[in-house]
Amino acid sequence: SLTVLQALEDGLKRADADPSVKAIIICGENGKFSAGADIQGFHSLKRQDGALGPIVSLIESSEKPVVAAIEGIALGGGLEVALGCHYRIAHVKAWMGLPEVTIGLLPGGEGTQRLPRLIGVPAALDIITTGRHIPATEALKLGLVDEVVEQNTAEAAIRLANKV
Length: 164
What we know:
- By secondary structure, the protein is an alpha/beta fold.
- The protein has one domain (2-162): 2-enoyl-CoA Hydratase, Chain A, domain 1 (Alpha-Beta Complex).
- The protein is built from 7 helices and 7 strands; from the N terminus they run αβαββαββααβαβα.
- It has helices spanning 2-17, 53-60, 77-84, 111-119, 121-130, 136-142, 153-163, and strands at residues 24-27, 66-70, 73-75, 87-91, 95-97, 134-135, 147-149.
- α2 runs parallel beside α3 (77-84) and α4 runs antiparallel to α5.
């Protein structure tokens, strides 16, 4: 939603500007990272106001390490947010994907550019064109995530952030 996008942007800008903040962790609520955009809201978003790409670029350009703590699902725009992060940690039961193609859309948050850079063109094309959801263990093998954990992903992300 526009509210979530605005909160993410505001939080990133505040964290980047605060010298006491050494790293940024992005996580979801209630055991889910993000299921992506609510397609019901597409018609109400103004052209620039609801654009995910600039926010993902803001994440990527942060001078501070940004770690995605993926629990549950990271689908569509949720995966695109994670792709903008410098590091990604996933819970062993997490699933990721870009399912937009299954409803006739292309991923719109620059995931079609970032995913091939991260995991290579053949694997990325499979995920982008089929819309299939991949489990965390496969994501690790592909290089989509840096670590898979069985415990709390936010705590694991904090440990990783402290290391880097």
